[in-house]
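Forwarding the complex inputs:
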Amino acid sequence: MSTLLTVANLSVHFPVRSRGVWRKTTGRVVAVDDVSFSIARGETLGLVGESGSGKTTLGLAILRGTQPTSGRVELTVPDGTIDVTRLDKQALRDARRHFQMIFQDPYASLNPRMTARDIIAEPLIARRSEKLSRKIIDQRVVDIAEKCGLNREQLRRYPHAFSGGQRQRIAIARALVLHPDLVVCDEPTSSLDVSIQAQILNLLAELQESLGLTYLFIAHDLAAVAYVCDRVAVMYLGQIVEIGTTRDVYFTPRHPYTEALMSSVPEPDPSAHLQPMLLQGERPDPAHPPSGCRFRTRCRYATELCATTPPVPVEIEPNHFAACHYARELSLKGALDLRTTNQEKVAE
Amino acid sequence: MAGSVPVLEVSDLSIALGQDGARIPIIEDVSFSIARGEVLALVGESGSGKSVTALALMQLLSKTLIIAKGRILLSTGDGYQADIAALGKDGKAIESIRGARMGMIFQEPMSSFSPIHTIGAQISEVVEVHENVSKQAARARAAELLGKVGIPDPKGALDRYPSEFSGGMRQRAMIARALICSPSLLIADEPTTALDVTIQGQILDLLRKLQHELGMAILFITHDLGIVAQMADRVAIMYAGRIVESGPVGEMFRHPAHPYTRALLDAVPRLGDLDRRRKIKPISGSVPNIFDAPSGCRFHPRCPVADPARCAVALPPVHARGAHSVACIHGKAELPA
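Prediction (whole assembly, two chains):
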């Protein structure tokens, strides 16, 4: 498989400003810190992490929704390689047909004054380099809408007439109408009910197959991520701490944070008793991350080395990287090891 | 657990939206009970009426919502008994229940604390209102409870403001406030939905520990079947304002009898799916709008095994075997022997 997206040493810093008139810059939050990874064409990479881990900022920075501080984002499309971080305004506008985004909240991401048809057609109209006739636009809108499970009749309606699941279908159709290569899905099912979430997850999988899409799938729901992703990257305080195939990361994690995450997911099976490896304390303030390894303040395996030296990612098995000094030595438990299947309840 | 009088017994509770004289039913004929030391999970998707049911239990419904019929019988260990449905929204009687005999925790801990008062003041206030104790004694109790819910330096925390707490810590403080008068029943409405998964694990663990220690009953409202499986003794599934199935947690997950329960379980992705090559199955259509609820069985338009001639016309019969009951025309055949 050929590589579609290459992210190299990407960092995003936000200034911390003081209160008052001058709003002096008093520090900075490193939201994304020296992140590197790649995604192959047709693949889905999951990006998991808790709130404040920088996963949404990373997704936005890849699409230039927010300006990266340093690093490179390269998209290899049939007509060449685009360095997204260095595009000027006009070139960026042109390049956007290659990458699109689907957001979490289908109530906030759709303009209530536009019909579904106009919402989906907007990216086609906004493209100045290619003037399309109304007939062609209509044809393409209907085409993609039908692929997303919306019928021609519904396209005349305004967003308020749709349920949450249908709104998300409109948002997906809008993102796909330009036939992008890469789609960044930021928590696309988090605000939906269980029964609707399954519809959208299956729709995304079908569309990937029929349109040859590549996804960066950002979510905190680890079970949903396991369901749709080929590979997974785990983020903590702006850094990728582990990346590998979904199977490797979930079943044989090599980073203590991944182990804690996997152990915390309540399994919908009353006979599988969860033995959560609860993390100590809370996530540190991203403006003042701990020295050395950022996870050490909550890590049960941390030593003095972790406080002084930041760990570098090591390849433990082919294509499975973890940034932990003890990644090779620790024998960590995976998503399945943590669930006992005995019938009796574990007494407190 | 069983045998004695349940802490809470809700029978045939109906709640209606009163609008311009018209009454639109929102909750219909909801019945359930919770024994001492038991956790009942009330499960449903958004708009199913689970939160409205919880608010009604404390007489906290907004002005437009009316308890149309039914009983909410609270029986606490000290011999106290009252029908909350008959108490009304104001007055001494209901105030002696709210926060004292019944505690409540919500999804969003930020909006349930006042930002301009200290955590200590807001927690000890509960004791001062309900019990005849001095300010000092109330403060000491608040500190004790904050320690119990795992807040470091509980004495110092008394003088801090909610904004100085993280989401997880605020949720702990809310639990402390709900439990300070040792309630017989705790109503927990999606208490971990706004939290990160590792913090959620901490809070669920804490609730389980406190429940064992204090022997209280918990009504746990959630949409997350994983939390249900890990927390509940019994489960009641709500759909469009009605309970469609209820029973012991193990049996409900192993032998779900209602098509909606089965569909919900089939729609949830699980961590082990990778290994089993399981495919999730969505439920077609969407959750009905209460103003336009389907006739007969409210699930019938989405139901794969509906018989339109019967399901669209009349309410389905309720079948029960032991503690497991289901409202479906196929109920009798589906209930495990």
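The domain at 8-232 of chain B is CATH 3.40.50.300 (Rossmann fold).
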